[in-house]
Amino acid sequence: MKYYGTAWKLFLRYVRFWAITILLFLVTNLLCARMFLLDFWLNDYLKNCDALGFLGLTLFSFLGYEYLLLPETAHCRETITAIPGGTWKLFLAQLAVLVPLAGLWSGNILVWMLMGFPKFSTDLSSGLSLCCAGAVLDLFFPSLIGLLLGSILALRVRRSTAYCLLMIFSLLAGPVLPQIFKDGSLGGFSVYTILDWFSLATPYSSFLADGMYLFPLELCRWVLAGAWLMGLCALGAFWLPKAKATRRLALLFALLAAGLAVRFQLRGGDCVIRRDYRMDGAVMGEVRYRDSQEQPPEQAADFTVKTYDLDLRIKSSLEAEATLTLSQPDLNVYRFTLYHDLALKKVTDGGGTPLEYQREGDYITVNGCGDGMLIFHYSGSVGKYFCNAQAICLPGYVPYYPIPGHISFWDADARCVAVRHDQMTALFRVRVDSPLTVYSNLPQTDDGLFTGETGALTLYAGIVGTELKGENRIYYPILDPVRVENLAGLEPVWAALAARVGETRPLETAGKPVFVLPFTIQNYVSPQENAVVLEDQILLFQVEPDRICRSYLLSLLPAQAQKEPVNSLYLALEGYLSNPEGLLGPYSDENPPKKEDFEILLTYDPSSADENEFFAWSQASDNFRYALAYQAEKLGEQKVLPKVYAYLQETEYSQDPVEFLFTLGERSDD
Amino acid sequence: MIEVTALTKRYGKKTALSGAGLSLGKGIYGLLGPNGAGKTTLLRCLVGVLRPTGGTITIQGETGYLPQKFGVMGSLTAYEALDLFAELKGLPREARREEILDSLARVGLEDAEKRRVKALSGGMVRRLGVAQAILGDPENLILDEPTAGLDPEERLRFKNLFAQFRGRRTVLISTHIVEDVESLCDHIILMNGGRILTVATADELRSAAQGKVYSVPVSERDNLQKPFFLLRDELVEGQERLRVLSDVEQPGQRIPATVEDGYMRYLKGAV
Which of A26, A61, A479, B213 is 20 to 30 A away from residue A431, measured at CA? Predict the structure, then answer.
């Protein structure tokens, strides 16, 4: 570009331009160096580097404005406009100075990111492409959009107005507002309706990125960046001196921007932007949805599924066709459970004839099946569980394919996911169409094809690695701090824990694949979900033998142990076991726990709006484990824990949990 | 050559130009009119800075333009500033240096080649503006008040410079200063209220007021016959007299009309 030299000359002749640039690079490198030295985990380090996009967006917008305003402040805009094409030529030449600077700045941060891999002893190839894509989407594009916005405002808008607009833009695109309006609500209005359109830099959320997913790089985020770029190009072409060609160009850009904006508006489930604190998001939305739904009663299936033939297409979300062969083809109704966000398009018999069905949340009731075969066509996303082109984390206990019976996936009392351990085994043939390398608990028989028998099909893909430890193959997010070697200590820990409570069943882990789940799906996790030991696989968040064994132990207790009011003792046992020091809290021999302090655990009504009652219940609930610890201290843990464990395994409770705990001393010699 | 037909420019409800028509061949044209007459709007439409609301503009050849308020980035040297405009005008690189130095010399800035623009005086910056306008030797030159704020010597220099273009280029100069127009321009375009009143020579303007200008003693002020237009108070041979424009006989004596009188005659209509 022949005007490039003069544009550079202009840039360098003004101290304020290169001073801002040097400052930007200096601050960026200092921040990166600080994170490089202080961050403990590679995932955090990469995420923090990536979040600097907001800095680029803000500073480049002001730099773009000031630099492009130069013809105006120097009073030569009119002279340049009078030269045919003069404004265009100078505008593009000036942009040609700033765009490489934005690229250089993004590249600078990318180098810091890549330097993190050897520092944290992680294979660079595992995250190279994602880091590069993240640098483009979260660093370069925001900078480009910022400088384009600033540059275009410089064509028409006075400095005071432009500065106000740029500051508002930075505020909307920055991390402050999502932190202020965490739940996304402002007097009933969802602020994310607006904020999503400005989430150009990395969206703020602690739920977003983990070592499996790294940066949110979904298609919709590229579409949003594209819409902004095209929109700004249209505005630029519209505001610059017009010729027929530029009018056509402006129209073309505007049409493209509008198309991309519509695509963004229809982003649906391909969007991890929703994985933040908003009340209708993928995380909090689940709780809100469940709280607002009347939980229908569970009903066991009176049939079994002999075979599952699953065709799963996982791109921006899940697109599935599930063909089920049933054991009893002559029933009038067939009950299934399928995650509520998966939109069921139709249910047909084996010949393709549509069948009538009713849906109520997770529960589906199909009327008849004709030839003993049912085909479910459905699509969508699966709440907090990853299911797109960037990562797949679909644990087998999540009903993302039709499960026989109306089985609750949600524990309404504990407000968390209920893990099923009693799955019916079936023969699976699963074809997964995904750009990722997919792992499963089933053996892979062909490219993208998994075949075998299981009660819970788990699919797993993303930035994941695999390692063979003893008899277990472990699949884990490479960039998360996973201590794979800890798995070796599982057996002795289980033996000790089982002995404490009098459990005799073994913890069988031999040969089971172990899937380490990413930490961002731990929100509203149940104690059992911390570590799920199934017939043919283990799913857990941390390879910590204590936690795995505890979760497994709790999973052996019947479901009614988690219902109020027995739930208080269940939680007290869980709290006691997870606290090896056996802290007594406020209790001592001088101040022993009093039974009447815990009566509220039996009488509290969760629907009550009385705040004082709630706090009293909450306090009593917290102290109940200290009461258990006190009893264990006083009467001896070896006597107390087996009795509590046995009590929780009862199918019908002879005493309420408070009475039970406070009469343990009287029964200690039984 | 510049051809303008039925040129109109509106800003909302306000009409800045109303059906202006012009046909300018080679020569120097002075655009004369009071503030708000639409002169600058007309020039801006001609050079493409403003988009007309209606009408057509046909310009043959390239146009050099000096806006009313000319400036350039102060950190550039005079040479670099012209180099920027030369680049934007698309002057070939090999001829550019010679062209720039020539332009600087023609406006008397040959010694300021390496001086920063911010170190130049207001008059020198104005001359630099003219230098950029004549860069590339354009067919047409459009200059919006090129002599405004200049001292007499600089004004003279400009007049000499523009005189060089007589008969070779189409030069349109907007100004308030009637004296400049009279001495320099072949044709005078009178504008008022967004309309072009007339295109005339200096002699034709004088003729329009000939026999209608009176020099009246101040003591006769009360005896002036309406309608009349008081051009100004002036000192004639040490005596204060009134210069009056009127179609009716006035006390005092008839005096020869000037271009300015003719200009006022057109501006005020019959008086």
Answer: A479
Nearest-neighbour CA in chain A from B71: distance (Å): 4
Amino acid type, A40: F
Find the CATH number of the domain harbouring B11: 3.40.50.300
**Helices A15-38, A53-68: crossing angle, 10 deg rounding:** 180
For residues A54 and A173, the answer to whether their CB atoms sit within 8 Å is yes
Alpha helices in A307-446 (DSSP H): none
CA distances A163 to A58, A153, A265, A343, A487, Å, are: 11, 9, 28, 45, 57
Residue B38 shares a structural domain with residue B151:
yes
Partners of A459 in the β-ladder: A394, A440
Residue A261 has a pLDDT of 96
Q: Which one has a higher pLDDT value, B201 or A529?
A: B201
Evaluated on CA atoms A479, A482, A485, A490, the torsion sign reads negative
Q: What is the pairing mode between strands B54-59 and B2-11?
A: antiparallel
Number of structural domains, chain B? 2
Q: Which of A280-284, A464-468, A511-515, B184-188 is predicted with the least confidence, judged by mean pLDDT?
A: A280-284
Structural domain boundaries, residue B252: 205-268
Q: For residue range B75-112, what is the model confidence (pLDDT) as tens digits? A: 999 999 999 999 999 999 888 999 999 999 998 899 99
Residue A332: left (phi > 0), alpha (psi -120 to 50), or beta?
alpha
pLDDT for position A190:
80
What is the ipTM for the molecules in this complex?
0.90
- Does B50 reach chain A within 8 Å, measured CB to CB? no
More confident residue, A187 or A170: A170
CB contact under 8 A, B75 and A89: no
Q: Determine, yes or no, domain membership for A291.
A: no
Asked if residue A327 and residue A184 are part of one domain, the reply reads no
Residue B119 sits at the chain A interface (C-beta within 8 Å): no
Residue A459: which residues within 8 A CB-CB, separation 6 or more? A312, A392, A393, A394, A430, A432, A438, A439, A440
In terms of domains, do A380 and A503 share one?
no
Most B CBs within 10 Å, among A6, A17, A69, A77, to test the B interface: A6
Range of the domain at A218: 4-281
B8 and B100 within one domain: yes
| Cα dihedral A440, A442, A446, A449 in deg (nearest 10) | -70
Using an 8 Å CB-CB cutoff, list chain A residues near B49: 78, 81-82
Please write down the long-range contacts of A496-503, taking CB distance under 8 Å and 24 or more positions apart.
Answer: A497/A546, A497/A549, A497/A550, A497/A553, A497/A577, A498/A553, A500/A577, A500/A637, A500/A638, A500/A641, A500/A642, A501/A553, A501/A641, A501/A642, A501/A644, A501/A645, A502/A641, A502/A642, A502/A645, A502/A646, A503/A553, A503/A556, A503/A645
Which pLDDT band holds residue B201 (cuts at 50, 70, 90)? very high
Same-domain status, B182 and B216:
no
